[in-house]
What we know:
Layout: H1 10-17, H2 21-26, H3 32-39, H4 46-57, H5 67-79, H6 81-99
Helix pairs in contact: 5-6
Amino acid sequence: MKLFEKIPNPREIRRKLGLNQQEFWSRIGVTQSGGSRYESGRNMPKPVRELLRLVHVEQIDLSKVRREDFEIVEYLKETHPDLYKSLRKAVRTKLEAQDGSVEVTAN
């Protein structure tokens, strides 16, 4: 799933994860009632879609992500692109070996 791509059905994602609305939506700072409206078809703002993608689709624990992490990634991309690509490929291979169905998008 790409950055700011439309989330086709948040209810389906929530149910696959086995979470109730309160558990699912509170992890991204949305009230249960707001989440219910999004699940019923109300237009979801881009920031909410992106948080949903990061937390529930990509399974990223946002409490562990720091600005420095992004700066390191950008520095590595700019100064050592071959190393960045090699590391990215190694991570992809590891993830695919773990569950066989991981989709990592390129940026």
